[in-house]
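Protein 1 of 2
SEQ + STRUCT:
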Amino acid sequence: MTTPPTHSGRRLGRTTTRRAAEAVVRAIIYLCGWMAIIILAAIAVFLMWNSFRAVNEAGLFTMLSGTAWYPTSSPGKFGMLPLIVGSLFVTGVALAVCVPVGVAAAVFISEFSGRLVKEVMKSIIEFMAAVPSVVYGLIGVAVLIPFVKDAFSLTSGMTAVTGGIVLGIMSIPTVISISEDALHAVPEELRQGSAALGNTRWQTTFKVTLPAASSGIFAAVMLGLGRAIGETMAVLMLTGNAAVMPASVFESVRTMTGTIAAEMGEVVQGGLHYSVLFAVGLVLFTITFGINLVADLVLERQRKRWRR
């Protein structure tokens, strides 16, 4: 009497191989996570190391609270406050442009547009994201600077609002893409349930879909903020690069990124001015890190609320 063949050995081999592959993938993901943390820490250490001389000789509080930026005077004055305020002014204008336009466009693409319109708009958005920042800067120089000067009766159109508008336009594709993905990820059952209760498509969008996708939309806004605050070329071309304390967004400003880009090529490596520029980079890194940390905390809080 013969016994039927069994496949237990083959099944065991497949299970073992599958578990080994899962262990390898898990180890790679774990390693990549630690590599990201190590790289971030290395950047912070590198900035702190190169800005040590500036902190030691010029003083961190003196630089952060100083309102005069004259790095070539004797002695040099390295007040960063005009640079910080200028960066915040430009970034604030950029957010005022990209957030409402980007979120509204994402809602239209996700909830109201037809298939053909959606495909065309997505192609346009991808093209906008691929345009180099210097091209946006050239368009701003040729079109926006004269318009702002004439519209607000200014002596110069190279202001914070000019740079902010262009940065906002540059950030729109980021906000649209991520917000549209977040809206698309909302389960269709929520929309159907809202419609079954008698809500119109507009009511469903603003009462159900948008709140459900709020975490993703907030992440899109934070990424748009990161794009705006870290941009260099456009602000160099459009904001006037006046390192003075601005009173409004209709004045010329200089940003932290613009200062580093404009002056790094002219300083003596290892000198005090060189170290101060690294200190400016450290301040920018700290601000960006703080914004992202707050964003993560807000997102985690919203996730917990929606789990309830």
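Protein 2 of 2
SEQ + STRUCT:
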Amino acid sequence: MAKQKARQSAGKPGLQIVRRSALTGVLAPDMPAEVAKSLRQELTDDLRLVFHRSHVSPDLIYAFSRTGRIVTDENRHLLTPEQHRDWKEALREYRRRAEADERAIDLCYTLLHESGRSELANRKRFAVSELGVATLEAHEEGISSFAMEGVFFNAWLSQLAKRLHILPEDGERLREKFGADVAELRGLLEEFYDDLPTPSWNPSIEKRIAKIESARAIPETWLGKAPASKEEAEWEMPLAVEHLQNAIEFCKDVNDDVMESMFFRTWFRTRVLNDHLPERFFQAIDANWSRVYERVQNHMARYAGARLQ
């Protein structure tokens, strides 16, 4: 659906100038190769942002970054057969990468260790499923995992402030202070990890971990790939918020305690990807989630009390 919307908007008049400039792709023949490469990269980065803001489909943006051109019905006749083959191959390469990333996102964001059939377990699975859908939709729109980490973190802090009955103005102070101290939280989770018994995984979980590790090792995977520029990161955030808000709307019947816990889990999941931390670190924490999150809650109650005095 996101790709269809993007392709429909790709024909807007405002993009015609961009297309013509992108098609030239010609640099002076006597220009040193390293200078030409640098200028081409700057052109690509700038135009990628223009394309994003104009809702051009991510597969077209990827193909442009690979070939230096956007191919349309109007300009197809200007290309050599080799150039057209390069364009089609770039599109196929993007689709292969996108499909692999979608499978990896599904593997990463599934609630693997919650197997019970209680109402609580069902609510957790439902919440995580919707947050995973938000992540998939963000990926389809070309939004990075770093933007999703940010919105999951803010959603968790908002839910935490609500539970601790922190006033909105104090909640904003807490957000600012804790945002600067987020490394402390990662250190806390590493302490918890050291306290956990050495996990013994059954074969099915070992297989799942191996698949995730393999997906994370693929060059240029979406998992843990930062935005290309500060401007691109700024463009991503409102869209990431929108995808999260859609997920929250679907979860309106899930109670606040579950949402708080699952926001934190999904933030932690994404943080592990973005910091390129070992997969088994996440899986061990996740397998002991209730125990770990209780300690996180106790820590945050003390943290909030000390910082807001």
